[in-house]
Write a structure and sequence with these properties.
By secondary structure, the protein is of the alpha/beta class. It has one domain: Alpha-Beta Complex (Spore Coat Polysaccharide Biosynthesis Protein SpsA, Chain A), CATH 3.90.550. About 40% of the residues lie in helices and about 20% in strands. Helix 7 crosses helix 10.
Length: about 300
């Protein structure tokens, strides 16, 4: 049996935190024991903490750690690491929802002692019949295809609790953890059956804001830790984009626009980090991604 702690880093997540906690409390597991579900509330000014306290009173596995000020996701992760002794730590984004077997599928590969970190598969709930929704599906499909070849962690991860902290000013916690695991001689593993649902930005402005921050964060990891995540390779991403070709009007009309946006945000992220020396570690928020309704696949499980 593998014992794990699930950590949720939250900044003003009242719209989704209840659904997420409900989904985690009814997880079906065989090889995995969920010992703790810890919400780190970082400078929340909405009802997030009150909702979490309701579940603290209901289930002894649920705990709340509060940070008075918004200090960034890396700071929240480090606070979690200081407050858990579980052998495996799971980090799930507060604006996602798992299937009932997601944690089992995510953590069970750790039965292999050579596996140090596992990533799940994010699936957007956006409508693919709208431009930005199509873009969300395209981006995460390319992420999936890349991870099958070169594991790339995102939205939900599990890793062995073998280090004390991650860089405090990192904007991309998953990318910062990857080299720490690999440096211990362990390998990354992708578990596509470990599905979590998320919601992509509904506007191009939010897409640009979030993606440019992520890319700047990846440049930070490259410079400070000497590590490049697999999606940093424009050649790999471009090849996957072309091999994902589909004979449909949306591909011809919308896919080039999404590709152009991605190139644009990478240029902006490069400008932010190399010229302006900006480190967007303190929560890049896209409000429309927080309005995550319960997917049909979850109906009846919460």
């Amino acid at each position: 049996m593998i014992h794990c702690c699930i950590g949720i880093m939250a900044y003003n997540e009242e719209a989704n935190i209840r659904l997420l906690l409900q989904a985690l409390l009814v997880q079906k597991t065989e090889k995995v024991a969920i010992d703790e579900i810890v919400v780190v509330a970082s400078g929340c000014t909405d009802g997030t903490e009150d909702i979490v306290r309701e579940y603290v009173a209901i289930d002894p596995r649920v705990r709340l750690l509060s940070q008075p000020r918004k200090e960034g996701k890396a700071s929240a992760v480090n606070l979690l690491l200081r407050n858990t002794e579980c052998e495996v730590v799971v980090l799930e984004s507060a604006d996602t929802l798992p299937l009932e077997n997601t944690i089992e599928a995510l953590v069970s590969p750790m039965t292999d002692p050579k596996v140090g970190m596992v990533g799940g598969r994010p699936v957007p709930v956006n409508s693919p019949n709208q431009f930005m929704g199509y873009g969300a599906h395209l981006v995460w499909e390319l992420h999936h295809q890349m991870s099958l070849r070169h594991p790339k962690m995102g939205e939900v991860i599990a890793f062995r609790n073998i280090f004390a902290q991650i860089p405090h000013d990192s904007a991309v916690d998953e990318a910062s953890i990857e080299p720490l695991i690999i440096g211990q001689g362990l390998r990354l593993h992708y578990a596509p059956e470990a599905v979590v649902f998320n919601k992509g930005p509904e506007t191009a402005a939010e897409f640009v804001k979030r993606r440019r921050g992520n890319f700047a964060g990846h440049l930070y990891v490259k410079e400070t830790l000497g590590y490049k995540v697999s999606t940093m390779s424009g050649t790999r991403v471009g090849w996957l984009f072309l091999t994902n070709f589909k004979w449909e009007w949306r591909w011809f009309c919308w896919a080039p626009g999404i590709a152009a946006l991605e190139v644009y945000v990478r240029l902006l992220g490069t400008y932010d980090y190399t010229i302006c020396k900006r480190k967007p570690y303190n929560w890049v928020i896209a409000p429309s991604t927080k309005q995550l309704s319960k997917p049909k696949q979850l109906t009846g499980t919460l």
